[in-house]
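Help wanted!
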Amino acid sequence: EVQLLESGGGLILPGGSLRLSCAASGFTVGNNYMSWVRQAPGKGLEWVSIIYSGGPTYYADSVKGRFTISRDNSKNALYLQMNSLRAEDTAVYYCAGGKSSSWYWDYWGQGTLVTVSS
Amino acid sequence: ETVMTQSPATLSVSPGERATLSCRASQSVSSNLAWYQQKPGQAPRVLMSGASTRATDIPARFSGSGSGTEFTLTISSLQSEDFAVYYCQQYNNWPPTFGQGTKVEIK
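Answered by r_m:
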C-alpha cells in the first residue's frame, strides 16, 4: 500500500521560511515524478512544483525563486523549502506522486496546512 | 497556460440518478485529462486518466469521455459516497492546470 505522509506545516509570519517533508512508503520517490500541489482554504487545486525522476525541477510562476523542491532517495522522502512566504501562500500542501512519467498524480498525501499570517 | 473551465459549479442530484459533469480546455489537451474526486477534509483521489481510463478500484459507474477541448465525466447512478467535489486536470500542456471544480450535492 502506498502512503505519503506530509509534515512541517504551521503558522508562519509573512517573509518567513518553512520546510515541508513528505515521507513515502510503498512508492519510490526517486523513480517517479513527484509534485507538490496546494489548495487555499475553500478554493481549488493548484500545482506548485515537480521533480522528475531524472532530477530536473520546475515551478509554478507564483512560487518560482522562492520555493525549492528536493528529495532524499536514501530516506525515500520529498521536500519543499518555502522562503519569503506571503499571505497568498496559505494553503494545504499535498505531496503527490505519479506512476507514469506524466503530470497527473495517482497518489496523494493527507496534506499539511501552511498559514502565513501576522 | 491552458485554462480549464468546469460546469456547472454545483450539481444537485438525487441518489440513483445520473450526473454529467463537463470540463472545457482553452486549447487542445488531446486525451491528456484526469479527473479527481475530493471529499471534505480529504485529499483528492484520481478517478480517471487519459480522459476515459478508470484508475485502480474506481467503480464502473464512473465513465469519462472526450478529447481535444471538451470532456465529460458521467456517474451513471449516484451513490451516497459519490457526493463530493470533482476536478478535471490537463497534463498535455505546460504547466499542468486544474478546473475550478464541480460540487455534486444531494438534491
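OP: Thanks! One thing I noticed: Chain A has no helices and eleven strands.
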